[in-house]
Specification:
single chain; 154 residues; alpha+beta; seven-stranded mixed sheet; 7 strands; ribonucleoprotein; AcTrfase_RimI/Ard1
């Protein structure tokens, strides 16, 4: 799992520049999110968590509720971990933070993941997600396809 020096807390608007840098590293061919996109997500009150090593933001994840009870639904908007810090379980910890909140609301959770991103898909499957569809040409401008995945509440 994560090194003891990594802590998880709320993503802040002031983290937006670092998030945009990580997005550009992680998703270079697929219209990475801008600083403003991250600021707006935080301002809208969606659940965004941050992984920090010291003062350095090394990962982030976001979830939005899109339907309320009695059939709550949520979407994982993004998860990203600095390539220099991948393979330490940080993404899994961030995902579990989101899922704990969704489960407390008994929400079904959806997400999209590139069909060629085996590592991410493996993570999601190990946390209970299943592929329920394919979205052709979902990512722009690359035109990459995405799997739509779903996880029922626990």
């Amino acid at each position: 799992m994560t090194a003891p020096t990594v802590r998880i807390d709320d993503l802040r608007e002031s983290d937006a520049p670092r998030c945009a840098v990580l997005e550009a590293l992680l998703f270079p061919g697929d219209d990475p999110w801008s600083e403003n996109a991250f600021r707006e997500e935080v301002r809208m009150g969606h659940l965004y968590r941050a992984a920090r090593e010291g003062d350095l933001l090394v990962g982030y994840a976001g979830l939005a509720f899109v339907a309320g009870p009695p059939q709550a639904e949520a979407e994982v908007h993004t998860i990203g971990v600095d390539p220099a810090h991948q393979g330490r379980g940080i993404g899994r910890v961030l995902l579990r933070e989101l899922l704990a909140v969704a489960d407390a609301e008994r929400a079904t959770v959806f997400l999209e993941v590139r069909t060629d991103n085996d590592a991410a898909r493996g993570l999601y499957e190990s946390e209970g997600f299943v592929v329920v569809g394919v979205r052709k040409n979902y990512y722009r401008p690359s035109g990459a396809d995405a799997h739509t995945m779903r996880r029922d509440p626990r």
